[in-house]
Amino acid sequence: MLDSRPTARADLLVRGAHVLDPRSGIDAPHDVLVRGGEIAEIGAPGCLDTPEGGEVVDGEGRHLLPGFVDPHVHLRTPGHEHKEDLDSGTRAAAAGGYVAVVAMPNTDPVVDSASILLSLREQARREARVPVGFLASVTRGLGGEALTEMAELRDAGALGFTDDGKPVHRAGILRKALQYQRLAGGVLCLHEEDPTLSGRGVMHEGNVSARLGLAGIPSVSESTLIARDAALAGYEDGRIHIQHLSARESVEAVAAAKARGVQITAEASPHHLTLTDAALLDDLDTRLKMNPPLRTEDDRQALIDGLRDGTIDCIATDHAPHAREEKEVPFEEAPMGTTGLETAFAAVYTELVAPGVLGLALVVDRMSSGAAALDLPLPAIQVGRPADLCLVDLEAEWEVGEHGYESRAENCCFAGRTLRGRVLATVAAGVIAYRERSFKVVDTVAAGFAGPDAG
Amino acid sequence: MRHLLSIEDLDRATMERILDRAKSFTEVSEREIKKVPALRGRRVLNLFWEASTRTRSSFELAAKALSADVVNLSSSGSAIEKGESLKDTVQTLSAYRPDLIVIRSPHVGAAHLVARWTDAGVVNAGDGKHEHPTQALLDLYALRDRIGSLDGASIWIVGDVLHSRVARSNIHAFAAMGAKVTVCGPPTLIPRGMESLGCEVEFTLDRLGEADVVYALRMQNERMTDSFVPSLREYAARYQVDGRRLASRQVLMHPGPVNRGVELSAEVIDSPQAIIGQQVAAGVVVRMAVLYELLAGRGAPADQPRLATPVGA
Q: In this predicted structure, what is the pLDDT of residue A443?
C-alpha cells in the first residue's frame, strides 16, 4: 500500500558505522551489507567485503539507524503543488532520514474517492523518492456530514482515514465511522479540536496571547475532543490514532484512555516537543504559526514525559508546507503550518537527546514507531529485511535553511537555528534516496548503483 | 529612537521627554497660525487600514502643524482592495521615500512587519488588539495634567479588556509611570493570563472606590452576538460607571468613541471628573512630540530627491 517510483535496488556496504536499532537490540559498530536492496549481512567492523558492482560508504564515527517513518505529512498534491509536490515532498523526507511517509487527504480535490486515490497512487509510482502511503478522508469533501466509501477506499489502498486539518466535529458521524471500521478496517486518525472553543484563535491561549492581544486556542479545545472520541472508540471497540498532541491535558486524556484499554495511539511533533509560545514574543514569526499551536513549557514537558513513558507512541512532523507569499503576511492572516521533515531528527536530537532529556535509542524508536500505528512494517536492521536505513553524523552542526531546502517551501519553524545531527544518507526500501552534498562515497565499483538523480 | 511600535519599548525617561515636549507644543496649538517649520520637507504617510476619526485626524494635524508633507491612505479605494499584499503596498509606497509611515491595521504585529519592509520610521497607530502606543502617551499626558505624578496612583481599567489594544498599551504605560493598575470586566472579556501583564484582575466594581482614576473602555455592540455578555442591559447594570459609582475625587477617562448609556452614563461624561475632552486635545500635541522625536535631528532630506519609480504602481 506504499508507492514510490521504481529505482534500482542498492548494493552497498556501510563500513564501521555505530549501528543502533533498539528493536533488533543492536548498539555497536558493525559493517552492514546491502545487496539488491536487502540487508544481506551484518558483521564486525572491517570484516565484510565490498559488494560486486556496489559502493562503499565510510560509517566511521557515524550512526546507522533504522530509517524514520512519518505518519503525518502534507504533500499538497493534488491541487496545491505550488506549496509541495510528491517529488519535492519526498525529497525532503529522504533528506530528513525518512524511509516512508503518510500523506494527508486535505488536498484539492480531497482524497475521498477510490478514483482520486488510485490516480494519486499512480502519480506516486512516477514521482515519489521514498515510499508514500495515503490516508483517505473520513467524510466526503471533509464536509463532516457524510462518510466516504471507506471499504472501497481501503481496497484501493487507503492506509486509514482522517479529516486532518479539521476535527470530525459531529460525534454521531465519528461513531458511524468507528462502526464501519469493523467492515473497512484502517485506523481513524483524528485532528482533535472543538471549533466552538478554538473559534478564530491563532495561537495558544495563555499569558503570551493575553500580552499580544491575539485570539487564543485553549488547551481544552483539544483535550475535550480527545476525551469524547476515546469514549466513542471504547464504546464501539474501534481504533483511533490521535494526531499532533500539544497540551498536557491531552496527554492525560490519552493516558486515561489507554489505562481503560481503548485502542488508541498518539503522536507528537518535533516542534511541540522543542518550542513554546514564548518564541512568538520575539517577532511574531508566521513560521511559528501552526495548528495545534505551540503551547507552554509545562505542556512541552508533559509531551516529553508522554513520549518517554509511551503514552505518546511516535513522533510525527505534520510537515505543512506553504508558499512564501502566503506566510509573508500579518500573523493573523497567515495559514497554519510549518515544514518539518528535513529538521525533525536534528531538532529532537539537539533539544532533547544531546542535553540528556531523552535517550537516543528511545528517540530512534519513536521516529519510526508511527509505522505500527498505521499497520506498516517497522523498519529494522536485520538480515533479510528491506534496507530502510539512515546514516547520521551526530556531531555535525548545521544552520537550518542556510543552503535552502529540498522541500518547495521554506516555512520551517527552526529556520536560522543551529542544529546538531545531520542526515548523511538515506536508503528507503532498498533504494538510495538521499545523500548529503558533502557526503563522499569512498569507493564506487561502477555498475549497479542508481542514485536519486540517476533515474 | 527610530520607530514607535510598542509602548513596551519606551522607558519612563523617554516617555517623560515626549510628554514634556508635547507640553511645549501646546503653545503652537494656541497660536493663530498653528504651524512651525520643525519638520519642513519631511514626508509622512498615514496608512489607515481600519476606521479611525481621532487618531487619523490628530496625526494629520500634528504633521501639518510641524510643516511636514502628509499623504493619507485608507484601505478602501486603495490597492489593498485590489488584493495587493501589505508587503507590496509598503514597498511600493516606500519608493516615494517617506520619512515616516504611520500605520493603523486590524492585524497584530502589522507595524512591526512594516518596519521590516521599509527604510522609513514607523509609528504604530493601533495594530489589531495588541497595542496603541500614542493613545497611551496622550492618556499619560492628559492624566499628568490633571493629577500631576502618577506614582502610587490606583488606576482601574474597566470594560472589554479582551478586545482592547488601549488596555494593553495603557497597562504598560501606567505601570511604567509608577501607577498600580487593575483591570475589571466580565470574566468573558478578560483574557486568560491577563495578570501576567502586571495588573490585578477584578470581576466586579465593588472595590472601585479604591481607584484614583477610572478608565472606561468602549463596549462594542457586536460583542453581544458572540455571547461575551448576555445583554447590554446586564452589562450596564454591572459595569456602567455612573454617578453612584464615581466618587467626586476620582478622575474619569475614556478613549472614545463613547457609547452613552452603556459603559458610561451621561452624567459622568459631562461631569468635572471626566477628562475625555482633554484626552482628545492631547492627541495632537502628543503626536507632534512623537513625530518630532522620530524625525527631528535625523538627516535632512537630500537636496535633489532621487527619481524613484514606484514598483508595480
A: 54
pLDDT score at B298: 61
Residues 6 or more apart whose CB falls under 8 angstroms from that of A132 comprise A2, A3, A4, A75, A86, A90, A100, A101, A102, A103, A124
- The answer to whether the pTM exceeds 0.80 is yes
Contacts of B194 in chain A (CB under 8 A): 210
- Please report which confidence band the pLDDT of residue B269 belongs to, taking 50, 70 and 90 as the band edges: very high
Interface pTM, i.e. ipTM:
0.89
Give me the active site residues of A, please: 318
Question: Contact B86/A212, CB-based, under 8 Å?
Answer: no
Q: How many structural domains compose chain A?
A: 2
> Mean of the pLDDT values across residues A27-40?
96
Chain A residue closest in CA terms to B8: A211
What's the CA gap between A331 and A112, in Å, rounded? 31
pLDDT tens column, B34-47: 899 999 999 999 99
Tens digits of residue pLDDT in A287-331: 999 999 999 999 999 999 999 999 999 999 999 999 999 999 999
CATH number (domain holding residue B289): 3.40.50.1370
In a domain, A276, yes or no: yes
Does A195 share its domain with A80? yes
* CA distance from start to end of chain B: 31
Whole-angstrom distance, CA of residue B222 vs CA of residue B286: 31
Q: Is A220 on the interface with B (CB under 8 A)?
A: no
C-alpha B306: how far from its chain's center? 34
Distance CA B129, CA A211 (A): 10
Same domain, A18 and A83: no
Domain hosting residue B95, numbered range: 7-131+283-295
- A334 in reach of chain B (CB within 8 A): no
pLDDT tens readout for residues A81-128: 999 999 999 999 999 999 999 999 999 999 999 999 999 999 999 999
Most A CBs within 10 A among B105, B113, B190, hence the mutation to make, goes to B113
Q: What is the pLDDT of residue A441?
A: 57
A316, A348, A373: which is the final residue of a domain?
A: A373
Give the residue from A217, A219, A276, A331 with the most B CB atoms within 10 Å of its CB, the best one to mutate. A331
Interface check A331 vs B, CB under 8 A: yes
- Report the mean per-residue pLDDT for chain A: 95
**Residue A53 pLDDT class (50, 70, 90 cuts):** confident
Name the domain count of chain B: 2
Q: Is B17 inside a domain boundary? A: yes
Q: Which three cell numbers stand for residue A288?
A: 511559528
Q: Are residues A334 and A417 in the same domain?
A: no
Asked if residue B269 and residue B151 are part of one domain, the reply reads: yes
Contact yes or no for B197 and A208 at CB 8 A: no
Q: What is the DSSP string of A25-66?
A: TEEEEEEEEEETTEEEEEESTT-SPPPTT-EEEE-TT-EEEE
Range of the domain at A189: 67-373
Q: Rg of chain B's alpha carbons, rounded to an integer?
A: 20
Residues of chain A found within 8 Å of residue B107, distances taken between Cβ atoms: 330-333
Cell 565484510 belongs to residue: A48
Report how far apart, in Å, the C-alpha atoms of B269 and of each of A324, B215, B243 are.
50, 12, 10
